[in-house]
Amino acid sequence: MKTIGVLTSSRADYGIYLPLLQRLSESQNYELELIVFGTHLSANHGHTLDEIERDGFDVKYKIDSLLEDDTPHGIASSMAKTMACFSDFWGSNGDGFDLVFALVDRFEMFSAVYASTAFGIRVAHIHGGETTLGAIDNIFRHAISHASDIHFVSTDSYANKVAELTGSDQIYNSGALSLDGIEHMQLLDKTRMLELWKIDFDIPTILITVNPETKSFEKNSEYSLVFSSTLEELSKHYQLVITMPNADTNGSLYRKAFQNLALKYPKRFVLVENFGRQSYFSAMKWSRLLLGNTSSGIIEAASFGKYVIDLGDRQKGRMTSKNTFNVAFDKGQIIPLVEDLLERGVYEGENVYFQESPSLKIMKVLDQLL
């Protein structure tokens, strides 16, 4: 039996991993060992380790390395601490893994992977080759690809990018893992969402996720003020459901702005730290529109027939379906586009990221290689 480690540092990557984790845990060929760190262990970000354990996974390794400081110095210090912690971890445990999965592009994921290189850990990277010019994640994503041995990408163009970056011949287009089984997923109805989250989706709702622009982090103070004013205007006509920012540079600026709006207008704003995969996709289904700058809007929303307003440069360069429209952090651009897209109703085009059973494709590659 081969031992597969999975690095998970946040609610975002865990939700993407989940279909693969379920297949690995059910397989007779592999022993799954989760390596949990980052915001999973942070009370300020919902302590999402609890969600992993509620889903029935035994978490063997917990590595606490994230500082509660989202200044540039704090992020750099967290990176250094994470690398130091993982140098100890790989030194003690690295020989026990036949393969370790890393996903996407977080700074703490970068540190964990780069600490492994000195120990010769074999790494498989998911979602490499993508481009997000407004985020420092772009640097980390490509760096993780360079440090990895096996690559699972979401489109042919991203496969070509990874090949250019790494020269690897072990690149597999498996599609977007987050969309695995989405056509058969049992979503929650409006009544259940009201019971669980106190959200009445009979009220026209916009689902919002905004994270800071980390490449031009000095602009976040201005952007958070502009976006707060925009949301205040939108809340006169719509219920606004906001998933809270992750642990990026200056993320607290948006977090505080959203908290102030919810205190001022408690009947118009709902703040959610962590929906989990099923509830998040259910919220996407029942919302009228998505607004923000998150990859989930670009990769997943088209499969739910939703239009997306993508803000600023964070996702600049990423392939999009025809449901996605990019505008600046500008109230004068955002409000009219919201009205226009709501009039269009349901998006009926394709999702360029969708393939059937990405997790099964990954498992077949593992069977061949391991």
Question: How are the elements arranged and paired?
Answer:
Blueprint lengths: L1 E7 L2 H16 L3 E8 L11 H6 L6 E3 L8 H22 L5 E5 L3 H10 L6 E4 L10 H11 L2 E4 L2 H11 L4 E3 L16 H8 L7 E5 L10 H15 L4 E5 L7 H14 L4 E4 L4 H10 L2 E4 L2 H6 L7 E4 L12 E4 L3 H14 L13 H12 L1
Parallel strand pairs: 1-2, 1-4, 2-3, 4-5, 5-6, 6-7, 8-9, 8-11, 9-10, 11-12, 12-13
Helix pairs in contact: 1-13, 3-4, 4-5, 8-9
Number of strands: 13
Give the overall silhouette.
globular
User: What radius of gyration results from the CA coordinates?
Assistant: 20 Å
Largest sheet: spatial strand order: 3-2-1-4-5-6-7
Major β-sheet annotation: 7 strands, parallel
Unreliable sequence segments: none
Beta-strand percent range: 15-25%
What does this structure look like?
This protein is an alpha/beta fold and 370 residues long. 42% of the residues lie in helices and 16% in strands. The chain is built from 13 helices and 13 strands. It has helices at residues 11-26, 49-54, 72-93, 107-116, 137-147, 156-166, 190-197, 220-234, 251-264, 277-286, 295-300, 331-344, 358-369, and strands at residues 2-8, 30-37, 61-63, 99-103, 123-126, 150-153, 171-173, 205-209, 239-243, 269-272, 289-292, 308-311, 324-327. The strands form two sheets. Strands 3-2-1-4-5-6-7 form a seven-stranded parallel β-sheet, with helices on both faces. A six-stranded parallel β-sheet has the order 10-9-8-11-12-13, sandwiched between helices. The longest helix has 22 residues, at 72-93. It is globular. The model has no long low-confidence stretch (mean pLDDT 95).
